[in-house]
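Appendix B. Raw example, untouched.
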Amino acid sequence: VIQKCIEVVEPQDLQFILDIFSNKVFKLSCHPYGCRVVQRLLEHCLKNQTQSLLEELLVHNDQLLQDQYGNYVVQHVLDHGEALHKSRIVTAVSGRVVPLSQHKFASKVVKKCVSNATSVEKSSLIKEICE
């Protein structure tokens, strides 16, 4: 129900949800339903509204990309986020591409990193795999 509300309500009217989610984004991102709500917020809210949400997510990059539900939120940022946020995720993966590629959930994030990285970042990730 909350996902549908986020999809149909005007972004400025969703601020109360973002306020409630403040300092709880990591926990919600690791929940089977919460991760979907976080993704919808990232899709439908304004950039200035999602900034603190994204900052909270990026602080927990390492845990989220290896979590069975959190990895979907990280992938969502890689697919739909701004270049700055994508680069921060790629940086978190860099230096650990091989072990993360062998992880059940993190491997999906590594794949998205390669697909969505800048050409320089992509070259670096692929070089790391080949070494």
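End of appendix B.
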